[in-house]
Amino acid sequence: MGENEVDQALVERVQAGDRRAFDLLVRKYQHRLVALISRYVRDWSECEDIAQESFVRAWKALPAFRGESAFYTWLYKIAVNTAKNHLVAMGRRPPTDDIAVDDAVHGPGASRLHESATPERELMRQQVEQTVFSTVQALPEELRVAITLREVDGLSYDEIAEKMGCPIGTVRSRIFRAREAIDEKLRPVLDTREDYRS
Asked: Which of 69, 132, 140, 154 is the most buried (most CB within 10 A)?
């Protein structure tokens, strides 16, 4: 069963009145949605609020969802519109170009965080996300653009080289340096996490 089929099965359970199935969809996509929204809105807490609002809108609209597109494509559109509406409401101009749907973030150390949620783990997850977010924002522009195109937009090294107008070796170097910077900032956070478990 592919991702779309799993999502559709969960959507049908939600439509049949199973609230827990929607919680599973939220948990599955909340990180991806925050990452998407962070391309429009710089402030971390605003990103989380907008993601929350997007899920509320999705919950209200879900009875009308017919599965004509993949669930995430539908959720992505809701999140983009919610982010743009937020910018307009704050008197800021939203970008004219929408971000590609393929925007999952696979930050370093992310695989170590897929465990059952406890308050401590949830706090740690938030700290890791915030560390990655703030580290990426603080990177020099060429590193920030390269890592974002790779990890958020999911572009290949060739596509990034073409987009940035530089050799593929330069792209690899920039992404490597960006990942090193993220790893360096994450290490103390993840070490603290190991202390929680011991």
From this structure: 132
Question: Can you tell me whether residue 66 is helix, strand or coil?
Answer: coil
Q: Is the pTM of this model over 0.85?
A: no
- Name residue, tokens 């049949």: 16
DSSP 78-139: HHHHHHHHHHHHTT-PPPSSPPPS------TTGGGG-S---HHHHHHHHHHHHHHHHHHHHS
Amino acid at position 71, single letter: F
Contact 146, 171 (CB under 8 A): yes
Q: Exposed, middle or buried: residue 166 (CB in 10 Å: 0-12, 13-18, 19+)?
A: middle
Which residue in 116, 182, 190 sits closest to 146, CA to CA?
Answer: 182
Q: Measured between alpha carbons, how far is residue 22 from residues 28, 58, 188, 198 in Å?
A: 10, 10, 34, 33
Q: How many other CB atoms sit within 10 Å of the CB of residue 175?
A: 18
Amino acid sitting at position 10: L
pLDDT along the chain (198 residues), means of 10: 83 91 89 85 84 93 89 91 86 60 39 48 73 85 87 81 92 90 81 53
**Amino acid identity at 36:** L
- pLDDT for 156: 84
pLDDT at 140: 92
The four Cα atoms 71, 31, 88, 142 give a dihedral, to 10 degrees, of -120
> CA-based diameter of the chain, in Å?
53
